[in-house]
Design goal:
mainly alpha; transmembrane helix; two-stranded antiparallel sheet; fatty acid biosynthesis; endoplasmic reticulum; metal-binding; FA_desaturase_dom; binds zinc ion; binds stearoyl-coenzyme A
């Protein structure tokens, strides 16, 4: 019999590759979608978001100015808040809930949901739905932060305008039963506003005031607004910078790239060419814990018995793929 090639779409993504990894979520690029022809729908600016985001960034700048007046303990606490909220996004909304790349026990899911509210990036359900359309329809009209529309749009602009109708239309067709079945996700969605008020603003501000007498003012602007703004921008850099600058060792036909700076600031999420090529890999990289605090964290949780079932692309698969579709910059180690 004739040897048959595995079905390969234009991006070089072979559907055969994910077999055996039981990819149940819809995070694989769909090359059958075509953008509608003709003029694009007009851009509708949401002014309230423009005002709030501007104020937030002014508040964060002010936080930088008063940084010298914060006590060392408050600075340490700001780092702790950064890490908890970052993990709520990376280990939580991203690797667990959007991609289902590992499984987590109830206590761990509760911790990640709390951290996620501290990060205030929309509730987990909405975040994961947007993220699945981002992968499935990457860099088209149906991608919420379509990087083809430029750095500013991919970074923050997409949160300041109405969505392209295709994002919503395609998003409505996604299979999201796994999220609906997760009580932690649905609970966080139901009490989202309250959880954000408490976790993103009150807790960061009140803990240093109560425990070591920091002023509420500094507590509000440093571990509060400044820390929140840093986490937001570190996250957005994955959508902007890591879709524009860096090598493409795994698939040169797609725009997402390996970006060291983003990897560092987003605690392991800048290996973005790898991640879009192997979205089910719990480590979002082939190099384990290297520059990847999120992977260390998930590994630690597995060691403690709080997580299990980590999905990983095999070494042979990665090498074969890099050879076949990479830009030649692939190095192991
Ligand atoms: C934020 C999110 O910052 C950041 C996400 C970044 C993702 C990064 C990914 C990179 C990889 C991971 C790396 C992590 C690194 C972390 C490092 C940490 C150090 N499907 O939304 P509406 C429906 S948030 C299906 O109003 P508009 C929706 O349900 C920051 N349906 O759209 C609704 O239906 P119904 C804080 C969808 O009017 C209807 O459509 N938050 C979908 O166009 C209208 O929904 C903000 O700033 C979908 N995908 O408004 C808030 N989407 O009426 C920003 C929507 O039936 N958001 N629907 O309920 C908004 O204000 C608005 O969403 C908007 C669009 C103005 C942007
Ligand atoms: Zn992803
Ligand atoms: Zn991406």
């Amino acid at each position: 019999p004739k040897m048959t090639e595995t079905k390969t779409n234009p991006s070089g993504q072979s559907n055969g590759e994910v077999v055996g990894v039981s990819s149940t979520v819809e995070d694989v690029f769909d090359d059958t979608y075509k953008e509608k022809e003709g003029p694009k729908p007009p851009r509708k600016i949401v002014w309230i978001n423009v005002v709030l985001m501007t104020l937030l960034h002014i508040g964060a700048l002010y936080g930088v100015i008063i940084l010298p007046s914060a006590s060392v303990l408050t600075l340490g606490w700001s780092v702790v808040c950064f890490l908890i909220s970052a993990l709520g996004v990376t280990a939580g909304a991203h690797r667990l809930w959007s991609h289902r790349s590992y499984k987590a026990s109830l206590p761990l899911r509760v911790f990640l949901a709390v951290g996620n509210s501290m990060a205030f990036q929309n509730d987990i359900f909405e975040w994961a739905r947007d993220h699945r359309v981002h992968h499935k329809y990457s860099e088209t009209d149906a991608d919420p932060h379509n990087a083809v529309r430029g750095f500013f749009f991919a970074h923050i602009g997409w949160l300041l305008v109405r969505k392209h109708p295709d994002v919503i239309e395609k998003g409505r067709r996604l299979e999201l039963n796994d999220l609906k079945a997760d009580k932690v996700v649905m609970f966080q969605r139901k009490y989202y506003r309250l959880s954000v008020l408490v976790m993103c603003f009150l807790v960061p501000m009140l803990v240093p005031w109560y425990l070591w007498g920091e002023s509420l003012w500094v507590g509000y602007f440093v571990p509060g607004l400044l820390r929140y703004t840093i986490v937001l921008n570190a996250t957005w850099l994955v959508n902007s910078a890591a879709h524009m600058w860096g090598n493409r060792p795994y698939d040169q036909s797609i725009n997402p790239r390996e970006n060291k700076f983003v990897t560092f600031s987003a605690i392991g999420e800048g290996f973005h060419n790898y991640h879009h090529t192997f979205p089910y890999d719990y480590s979002t990289s082939e190099f384990g814990c290297k520059l990847n605090l999120t992977t260390c964290f998930i590994d630690l949780m597995c060691f403690l018995g709080l997580a299990w079932d980590r999905k990983k692309a095999s070494r042979e698969l990665i090498l074969a793929r890099a050879q076949r579709t990479g830009d030649g910059s692939h190095r192991s180690g």
